[in-house]
Design goal:
449 residues, alpha/beta, Quinone Oxidoreductase, Chain A, domain 1, Rossmann fold, 2 domains, 33% helix, 20% strand, binds NADP nicotinamide-adenine-dinucleotide phosphate
Length: 449
């Protein structure tokens, strides 16, 4: 089993409870306890409160919705059960990537049960794929998968997020419907769950690592992976507002790298919302145009061979740089450090330029910033983070982000590929820079609980 640092269940539950409680206390001290329990229901699928006051009425309503949805799910499940055209394909890691991830060499789509026709399927698989699972496991049919840069690092032998064994199914964050549930999984058939799934028609995963998928008002469910997704919008929110000693402010110059990507495009808008002047770094004129449309004051095309990166930085940041939100590392970070202002803040969110070289092995060297002494010279700070380290602030992040979205300050651009077969190619596109905004892969259409 692959360990990963994005498993909410391994996050400190008590800490989350405490901060959720503090949050609700500010609004409604009398109902804070039960509101917290309801929130726990959303996060950990724990039972809803049973008392008789207003909150319980709401909780009861939620249960009703759930029950109603389960009956509609039961109906759709029976449709699936009699519909034999349901393959079980999965993408496995065939070989450890050598440098840049190549889906044709490094991954393989394995078809476990491919019927030639309806009758053959019915004959060979009459129960329609009741898989053998352990008591704590569930089988989930993914609906939408999130394509995240960190997944590439899991294909290496030494990996911070857990190394994927050769032959294992490619993991991916996402949501989908539970179609089979072990008695100790904590989930029931028909529920829509979110968490670390797999690039497969049917993902077999530990129920403890999944939470009930929550649909935010007025937003498509895809928002739980993008705008309000832990590894996307909420990562940007954390990096801008919680990680540095001071968030950007009016009059300051901010540079965001990987600016046209999922995390970067949200970071750009959040920094813009503070009144700061924002410069976005991305590859190619198409991304430059997109960033200007998003509100950037200037853009840097790090792929422009005619204009050295250093001169573009000097041109777009004439008064130096006060805040860096870095997603790419390497040479770009180094050059930005050279222009950091006194009391500047540098937030290390990621370093995608270094992810194609087995970055956690002892023999490979990550290209680090040789300009780091500028931090000392100018009294600047550099601080890295993993969003899980800030999970206790989850309710604040959600509410803060939702509020900014509702005020029109932030929006998410989604790039959605269709079909399981596209998954590793979509991941490859993060490294060739072909996609803008949040990259997702639609496996099955969303349905409603
Ligand atoms: N700290 C955390 O908790 C946390 C959580 C989630 C994600 N992250 C980090 O956030 C960053 C963005 O991740 P994401 O999933 O949102 O991906 P993304 O930004 O949607 O896609 C990656 C982007 O990186 C750019 N890129 C690729 N190779 C590059 C290179 N060699 N040099 C410069 N830019 C390159 C590409 O755009 P161009 O066309 O501009 O090259 C691409 O669009 C990653 O570093 C990831 O590890 C951190």
């Amino acid at each position: 089993m692959v360990s990963n640092h994005l498993n909410l269940v391994r996050a400190p539950k008590r800490q989350i409870d405490k901060s959720v409680h503090a949050f609700f206390s500010a609004f409604s001290p009398n109902a804070a306890g039960e509101l917290t329990e309801s929130f726990r229901f959303i996060l950990f699928s724990e039972p809803l409160p049973q008392s008789n006051n207003i909150t319980t009425t709401r909780a009861a309503a939620a249960t009703t919705t759930q029950t109603m949805s389960l009956s509609s799910v039961a109906a759709s499940a029976s449709v699936t059960a009699t519909s034999p055209i349901s393959f079980n394909r999965k993408w496995i890691l065939k070989r450890r990537p050598v440098g840049v991830f190549d889906p044709n060499l490094d991954a393989e789509l394995v078809v476990i049960d491919k019927p030639q026709n309806k009758d053959e399927h019915a004959a060979t698989n009459p129960t329609n794929e009741q898989l053998e699972i352990e008591d704590h496991q569930v089988v989930v049919e993914p609906q939408l998968l999130s394509v995240d840069a960190f997944l590439r690092t899991m294909y290496d032998e030494h990996a911070y997020h857990g190394s994927l064994p050769l032959g294992a199914t490619l993991p991916a964050m996402g949501y989908g419907r539970v179609v089979q549930a072990g008695p100790k999984s904590g989930h029931s058939v028909g529920t829509i769950v979110a968490g670390m799934l797999q690039a497969a028609d049917k993902a077999v995963v530990d129920g403890k690592g999944l939470m009930r998928s929550f649909r935010f008002p007025f937003l498509d469910r895809s928002a739980c992976l993008g705008l309000l997704g832990l590894t996307t919008g909420l990562t940007a929110y954390t990096g801008v507002f919680y990680v540095p000693s001071k968030a950007p402010r009016k009059g300051e110059t901010v540079v965001v790298t990987g600016a046209a990507g999922a995390v970067g495009s949200i970071a750009v808008q959040l920094c813009k919302s503070t009144g700061a002047r924002v410069v976005g770094v991305a590859g190619g004129p198409r991304k430059g145009e997109y960033l200007m449309g998003l509100g950037c004051d200037a853009v840097i095309d790090y792929k422009d061979k005619a204009k050295p990166l250093e001169s573009q930085i000097a041109e777009t940041c004439p008064s130096g740089i006060d805040f860096v939100y870095d997603n790419v590392g390497g040479e770009t970070l180094d050059l930005l450090l050279g222009k950091i202002n006194p009391n500047g803040r540098v937030v290390i969110c990621g370093a995608i330029s270094q992810y194609s070289g087995n970055l956690n092995s002892k023999t490979n060297k990550v290209l680090g910033p040789s300009n780091y002494l500028k931090l000392a010279e100018r009294g600047a700070e550099m601080r890295g983070f993993n969003v899980i380290q800030h999970i206790a602030k989850l309710p604040f992040m959600l509410v803060g982000m939702f509020y900014l979205w509702a005020r029109g300050k932030v929006k998410m651009t989604e790039h959605i590929e269709t079909g399981l077969e596209q998954f590793p190619y979509a991941l490859q596109k993060l490294f060739t820079g072909e996609t803008i905004g949040k990259t997702l892969v639609r496996i099955n259409r969303d349905d409603h609980e």
